[in-house]
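ok posting inputs for the magnesium ion job
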Amino acid sequence: KKRVYLLSEGNKDMKMVLGGKGANLCEMTKLTLPVPPAFIITTETCLEYFEEGTGDLPAALDYEFALKAIEEDTGKKFGDPLNPLLVSVRSGAPASMPGMMDTVLNLGLNDEIVEGIIKTTGNERFAYDTYRRFLNMYSDVVMDLDKEPFEEVITSIKKRKGIKLDLEMEAADWKEVVGEFKKLNPNVPSDPREQLRGAILAVFRSWNNDRAIRYRSYNNIPDEWGTAVSVQAMAYGNMNDGCGTGVAFSRNPSTGENKFFGEFLPNAAGEDVVAGIRTPQPLEEMATKWPGVYEELYKYQEQLEKYYCDMQDIEFTVENGRLYMLQCRNGKRTAKAAVKIAVDMVKEGALTEAEALLRIPANQMDFFLHPTLDPTAQKTKIGVGLPASPGAATGKIVFTPDDAEVMANMGEEVILVRKETTPEDIHGMKSAEGVLTALGGMTSHAAVVARGMGKCCVSGCTAAEVNAKNKVLKLGDVELKEHDVITIDGSTGEVYLGTVERRSAAEDEDFQTVLGWADKMRKLKVLTNADTPDQAAQARKLGAQGIGLCRSEHMFFEPERISSMRAMIVAEGKGERLQHLETLSVFQREDISGILKEMDGLPVTVRLLDPPLHEFLPHSPDEMQSLADTLGKPFSVVKDRVKQLKEVNPMLGFRGCRLSVVYPEITEMQARAVARAAAANKKAGLDPKPEIMVPVVSSAKELRLIVPRIVAAVKEELDKAGVDVKIPIGTMLELPRACETADQIVGTDDVDFISFGTNDLTQTVWGFSRDDAIRFIGRYQEQGLLDFDPFARIDEEGVGGLINMAIEKARTKQPETKVGICGEHGGEPNSVQYFHSSKFDYVSCSPFRVPIARISAGQAAA
Ligand code: ADP
Ligand code: MG
Ligand code: MG
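and the output
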């Protein structure tokens, strides 16, 4: 088995074996870019390490030959004091997990070798700076010592000398630091080969550190992959002012603008940029400082982007005027940049529309629906930082990731404020609406991670004094305490006091172009779930092709209407009930007519009353008394009715079509209201297309009872009005029994369509109560019993299996039957993919998910 590869032996398609970083290092070498020589230990060897469980390297792993190859290539020798080879030991998984795992730099140093470096280079400062970096990283990464005492050493020397920057530290200072570090940790092995063994083991172990595990679960990266380890000759960015290090993007990862973009730090090592220790300089300055190097880098980024056909994220180091490429990968980008880059690359002829569409992260597209700051709004600016990740957010400030998570779980919108973020902050960033940091550049951890999450972020707001201990943020004269409200604008870097008005970016031209591609390609129609004319209008603007679910009961929860509803429910006898139903019918007709108007010419599926009746009734004695007073009935009548309707398990109780069975007059009223609304709109010259849908059906027999009543009521109303409107009738499949007997259901006279109610269907197939499952679903996910929440993403195996069987039965019996879905899943990208492949006619989702569903449906068909 081959466990070790030289860069000349791999290529970009070997990510599973060599990790993304390793595979791309091989590819850059093939393209003859200047990459320091390296060898790569395979991901499989990492798995072997975990399997063997000895805590030592797999016995069969041998990298001596590869180390020798690097020595020959560089003309240096590992462990040789007079001409030492130093290496970096880098992690690299098949999928990008930036900063989640460990890397050790400058490995191969000891007291003797440092002296050798001083002798041969004459650069004492460089030698001790490099040594202290190594001791620090090795102690942290390999030996798991606390970082703080090490930082403390440097801070106290700086304080004593009255300096702030690493650059101001002199050779003697770094030498002193090295001495102190060795006191803090006297146990760093001095044998370079022993160091190498330790570092490789540490990188293997880092595959299973907490933050890597958490990152994988957020990003659906399998735990079984393992990390590769790259061992690479060091390029030194920290020798003198002719050296430096930087990060570059072939296009702007925040806005998508097609302009080479990046940052560099002179006289520094790679980890300094990412850690945000000093604020880096824009690449333009490198063009002035080192024009030759800049030009070369410019050429490579162009070449790499063309080659990979995607925006590239590049790490580089300059050693004495020589450029070294240390990493390239397809760059993470914001939702906005993803859309702009896709559109531009189609214009440039680099991608087809279908290829470009597939690059769009559909689930991040809600960025375009979420607001940006209204430029005309009143606002008080209190600070400005870097526009690290666009979008705007308002929230209460919190100072720790845990506080962010706790507050968010209570439904609060928060802004996470940090001096700088580290991978330990991820869960807090995920919970926050936005992130504000005092330190760090455009490529700092906070910026990169926020962009990946599609979260707005302002980084490098250097005027901000963040005191996490006392939970105070000072910006100039303004002092803010925990839970004070601020607004941040990640597109401009500005920070405002309090709430600022925002507006949507849905009009964005590039976004509309992408939607246009999706619409051309998709087979699925995208409808919406909307209950009011306002929602209908909004959804139509976002591209909804009709309403797949209009919950008629929502109209009765309005304050003036609920009293009529309650009166109808506590009515004593049919006569009294009919009287109140007449009032309700007027409301219902008005609302439906308004919705039909907004959706004129498009289908509007009105679902009959679904919830258990007791949901409409008051439950406290005071409220019951006041209802009794309004209705002029004795308290006992109301109380008895409430008691009578109370259910132990209402979700499986007296609801849906069961109400129609017991109170046909309610269904009849609703059918009449729909017909009247349609008739009125038709007479007004419009083109109403209502449909009526019966919920919670479990057998065709129920439909045989209910549907004829609907047909009769509709016919009577339309005849009375003297207009002709076709009103299709359908039913929801949301119970397993209905799915099992879908053939009988679609075989029922006058049943024209079926729509899967996947919320209830998930609930009834799993036997998970929708309202109670929160208590354990998280634990199920943590323990690997669920890969995702089946209420958010369709469970293809179980629920999906049943759906496919039902569709097959239905289509065999009635090939014409229209098939739709109207649960939350209708706007979830993976689920939409599934509905496409199961040949649904339409999905219906909430208005704000409509564009996401359009793109997902386009991607499914592309
Ligand atoms: P990550 O996956 O966290 O980015 P990397 O393996 O890329 O970790 O290394 C972290 C930093 O160390 C990077 O900034 C990189 O530029 C720098 N680095 C890694 N290997 C070398 C090397 N051989 N010479 C110089 N710098 C290096
Ligand atoms: Mg890197
Ligand atoms: Mg339902």
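notes: Residues 315, 327 surround magnesium ion (ligand 2) (CB under 6 Å). Residues 370-504 form a domain with the Glucose Oxidase; domain 1 fold (CATH 3.50.30.10).
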